[in-house]
Task: inverse folding
């Protein structure tokens, strides 16, 4: 049993997607309940993150930030599954999930086929847990193998399960010690999850890597269709998903979640004009039975379109006033790269953002448009539509990239990032240019982590111990008149102190002598404009740094 997880085993497992999850609808928009139920039945696994400043729920069928209480309620109730900051009742997402569309030639005709892991119209999920190698349907005797894995429950050196009752080790292992090799590959055979077989060791990147695998091959999961109807239409596409999320405890990255996908074409078909999308039902509201989601505002961030970013915040007339709500940013972080014929490229290990397809479709729509969007999902994924602002709505966001072609056994890589930030100007969120700058900084930090460290693989805590050369405290944060730095050095000596803005422009520097042990440093910030800054200390060639915010 997983620690901290309420586990209830049922004699009968209901697998109908209509019973697994419940969505809001325009006729019945409030489906919240204050209780915080996580569940694990034999094969179905809901888990909530325990690291970073974001409480985020994962489901091994591909649902994200959504909890379903249907097995516990006479009237099924969906629950929001994303809270920020951790420990508050400020919820930001009701549910989200990956979707995929492709053209497939079948029985003499070409079909536009799609599947989804979260439908905002009815919370339908067409996925099933596990690997395609285990067959098309559900495998009820592999609950532990197909769980939602949390990396901090496994030994970082050996990959062994820390739980003495756990028999399955960490599933991702390094190919080698190259940048991309450190990201790891999924080891299907649980007996091979050990260093004697994979000597490079387990691939564990962040404070809490969260991993699961799921597939589209169980036609019984397809809501609104019979199995025969689905098969006659060319389903399944036989796409296997390996999903890994990264969450960080350190100051610079604690307010973000990165979700990376490997989509593998396990069929014998060449799939044409493929599109990958993420559908997110962002609801900014106090957790509880109210309608706080109906007054949200969202804008595509067009000042720098390379960020592939949409920003959402809440009005204040539904109980949000004075509760500390800020901004949520949804962005596409990585997309496929294609050759001149539109097929997945394989000539390089890594492709820069300029070589990738990038964000093509960015549609904001209200709850009343659910049916229109979802009933024509392929056409909407591929529309390359770019929405303008949407205000005072219970809204959804569809972000998509494409088109690309996939031969059998091709893998498409895609990643999305979710960032959170308080208003930079203080008070309630307004959407003003200066007010969103902390969020923009967080998004840029996340992109730098992802790309400058070659897809996260070299990312380390920005405060490594370095023989007890550490920053212990940085306060108050945000600062106004001054920022206090408490740090430790292992010997007497000179410390080079540098203050820079988030773009790396140096503002001030000093070389000062400090004594062994704990030391204090105070920096005047009264003349600094509001924004984010980095204090960096260098001692005997070792660097430590802290990110802090200034509000003036």
Result:
């Amino acid at each position: 049993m997983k620690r901290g997880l309420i586990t209830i085993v049922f004699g009968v497992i209901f697998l109908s997607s209509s019973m697994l999850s419940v969505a809001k609808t325009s006729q019945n928009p409030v489906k919240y309940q204050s209780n915080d139920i996580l569940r694990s039945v034999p094969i179905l696994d809901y888990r909530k993150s325990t690291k970073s400043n974001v409480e985020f729920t994962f489901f091994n069928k591909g649902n994200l930030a959504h909890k379903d209480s249907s097995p516990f309620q006479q009237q099924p109730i969906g629950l929001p599954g994303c809270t920020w900051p951790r420990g508050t009742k400020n919820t930001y997402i009701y549910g989200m999930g990956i979707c995929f569309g492709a053209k497939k030639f079948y029985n003499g005709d070409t079909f536009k086929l799609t599947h989804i892991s979260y439908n905002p119209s009815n919370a339908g999920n067409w996925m099933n847990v596990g690997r395609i190698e285990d067959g098309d349907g559900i495998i009820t005797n592999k609950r532990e193998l197909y769980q939602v894995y949390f990396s901090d429950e496994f030994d970082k050196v050996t990959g062994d399960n820390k739980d003495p009752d756990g028999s399955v080790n960490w599933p991702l292992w390094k190919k080698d010690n190259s940048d991309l090799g450190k990201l790891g590959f999924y080891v299907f055979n649980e007996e091979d999850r050990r260093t004697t077989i994979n000597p490079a060791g387990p691939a564990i990147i962040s404070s809490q890597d969260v991993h699961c695998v799921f597939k589209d091959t169980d036609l019984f999961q397809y809501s609104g269709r019979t199995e025969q109807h689905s098969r006659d239409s060319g389903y399944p596409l036989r796409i296997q998903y390996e999903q890994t999320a990264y969450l960080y405890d350190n100051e610079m990255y604690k307010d973000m979640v990165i979700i990376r996908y490997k989509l593998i074409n396990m069929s014998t078909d060449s799939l044409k004009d493929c599109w990958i999308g993420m559908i997110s039902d962002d609801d900014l509201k106090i957790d509880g039975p109210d309608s706080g989601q109906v007054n949200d505002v969202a804008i595509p961030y067009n000042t720098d379109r390379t960020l592939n970013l949409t920003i959402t915040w809440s009005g204040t007339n539904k109980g949000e006033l004075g509760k500390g709500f800020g901004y949520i940013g949804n962005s596409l972080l990585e997309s496929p790269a294609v050759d001149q014929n539109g097929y997945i490229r394989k000539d390089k290990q890594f492709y820069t953002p300029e070589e990738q397809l990038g964000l093509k479709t960015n549609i904001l729509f209200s709850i009343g448009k659910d049916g229109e969007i979802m009933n024509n999902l392929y056409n909407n994924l591929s529309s390359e539509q770019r929405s303008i602002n949407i205000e005072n709505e219970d809204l959804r966001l569809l972000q998509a990239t494409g088109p690309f072609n996939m031969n059998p056994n091709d893998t498409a890589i895609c990643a999305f990032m979710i960032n959170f930030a308080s208003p930079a100007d203080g008070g309630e969120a307004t959407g003003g240019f200066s007010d969103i700058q902390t969020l923009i900084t967080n998004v840029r930090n996340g992109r730098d982590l992802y790309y400058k460290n070659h897809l996260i693989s070299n990312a380390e805590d920005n405060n490594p111990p370095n023989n007890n050369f550490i920053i212990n405290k940085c306060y108050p944060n945000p600062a106004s008149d001054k920022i206090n730095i408490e740090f430790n050095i292992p010997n007497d000596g000179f410390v080079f102190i540098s203050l820079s803005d988030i773009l790396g422009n140096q503002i001030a520097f000093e070389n000062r002598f400090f004594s062994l042990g704990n030391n204090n440093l105070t920096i005047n910030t009264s003349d600094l404009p509001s924004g984010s800054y980095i204090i960096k200390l260098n001692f005997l060639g070792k660097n430590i740094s802290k990110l802090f915010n200034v509000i003036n």
